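Lecture 7 notes: from sequence to structure.

We start with a single chain of 193 residues. Read the sequence below before looking at the structure.
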Amino acid sequence: MIPLASLTAWAFARYPFSGREIFYFLILALLMVPGELTLIPSFLLVKDLGLLNTRWVLILPYIAGGQVFAIFILRAFFSSLPQEMLEAARIDGASELQIFYRIGIPLSKSILGVVAIIHFLRTWNDIVWPLVTTSSTSLTTLPIGMYSFQTAWYSIWGPLMAGYTIASIPLIILYAFTSHLFVEGLSSGAIKM
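Now the structure, written as tokens:
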């Protein structure tokens, strides 16, 4: 998800082409479409592709799912990079892809990390898509497993709280190792030099 979104955002931020703003605002308009509205077409698509009750139905839609938000965030960051630095690289003979990989990506590590973490959290906590597309118990995700401890009439509180504790462990580890990315990502646009 991150490589494709970063390349797209770089193109929208740094390459002048005809209709660039129109295409960007059309992609941005997709942020206004709620996920529930695309649930049935997405289900029919994965059904036609024969991906129901496979691991791919839990992988491929999540890769494509966070593109619009990532493009929005990364384009804003790439637009704020100083043009002089990129021009200096061009004068030194760097190609456009070299500028992207040697200047753009290293400078945007913090914002790329923040986008990846947000997408991971959204994927980790999703219950609707796995509930609709998988019926095999071997493909049960943790949120669906915890959901099975609750019914309309009662809840099995002991296993439910143990499940919440187990589900929070990877998120706590992720936060412990990546909290500096949030701070760098939030403060990267705060001070102009």
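The mean pLDDT is 86. Keep this in mind for problem set 3.
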